[in-house]
Design a protein that fits this description.
The protein has 83 residues and is mainly alpha-helical. It has one domain. 67% of the residues lie in helices and 0% in strands. It contains 5 helices and no strands.
């Protein structure tokens, strides 16, 4: 088992669920999302995006929120192809 695949018995942590919840929201303007990340999660935006990227490869996250995870995977894949 790996960090991206800790096994079927493991559930997402509260922090991992909170990261997905932040991604489900729409944000009114620049800086609002980063401010919410710091205030709600108590982590830096850089750490947030590291956690989010790992979640996109985690089957538990896909099971928890397939719409958000699949949307973000498509965006990530499109950006990778355009590089």
């Amino acid at each position: 088992m790996t960090a991206a695949d800790p096994g079927p018995e493991a559930a997402l942590s509260d922090q991992e669920r909170a990261v997905l919840a932040v991604e489900r929201q729409s944000w009114p303007g620049p800086g609002a999302k980063e401010r919410a990340i710091r205030e709600r999660l108590g982590i830096s935006p850089v750490r947030y995006y590291q956690l989010l990227n790992a979640l996109l490869d985690d089957r538990r996250a896909l099971a928890e929120d397939p719409v958000t995870v699949n949307r973000l995977r498509r965006i990530r894949d499109t950006r990778r192809r355009s590089r």
